[in-house]
Amino acid sequence: MPRSRWIPPSQPEALWRVFYDGDCALCHGFVRFLLKRDRRPQPIRYGPLQGDVFRAIRAEGGDWPDPLPDSLAMIGPDGILRFRSDGVLRILGELGGIWRPLAAIGRLVPRRLRDFVYDRVAHVRKRIFGTTDAHCPVVPTEWRDRFLL
After folding, report:
1. Is residue 113 part of a domain?
2. Is residue 110 situated within a structural domain?
């Protein structure tokens, strides 16, 4: 499926990692959404928050809240953990294309309001979208190497 690259990702060669709730069907859907749209030379890597890779990264330390909020977590090449709406908007911006200006528009909304909405969705997501037993979403074979377990 050819796509326009009229707005490129800001850091196409950088390593971005997205960690998601492996039990959440909505999170699995968001990961599949990102996988389909990621055309960066250095693809985004994914892993469950419940996985060994995230546990090891977290054990290294850092200025992270404890406990982490019930949220998707994104770590960019700068090593900074972003979560809630900041994480979602940052990773959407990294896709390039129409997603980059949409993420910029989303950042115009005050963070407290964005995070309030994010938290409300996070609170009901498993009741509405369900749960899954597999920590990784079912994806085509060519995308499986993008997962950190």
Report:
1. yes
2. yes
Q: Each residue of 87-102: pLDDT tens digit? A: 999 999 988 889 999 9
Domain that holds residue 54: 17-132
Q: Residue 1: inside a domain, yes or no?
A: no
Task: Locate 88 and state its tokens.
Answer: 């979602």
What is the count of structural domains for the chain? 1
Phi/psi-derived region of residue 18, left when phi > 0, alpha when psi is between -120 and 50, beta in every other case: beta
From residue 28, alpha-carbon distances to 7, 121, 129, 137 in Å are 26, 15, 10, 5
- Report field, pTM of the whole predicted structure over 0.85: no
| Cβ atoms of 147 and 45 closer than 8 Å | yes
Going by C-alpha positions, the residue among 139, 149, 147, 142 that lies closest to residue 32 is 139
Are 31 and 135 a contacting pair, CB within 8 Å?
Answer: no
- The predicted-structure confidence for 108-131, as pLDDT tens digits, reads as follows 999 999 999 999 998 888 787 777
In a domain, 149, yes or no: no
Q: Could you give phi then psi for residue 45, rounded to 5 degrees?
A: -105, 150
Give the span between the Cα atoms of 138 and 60, in whole angstroms: 30
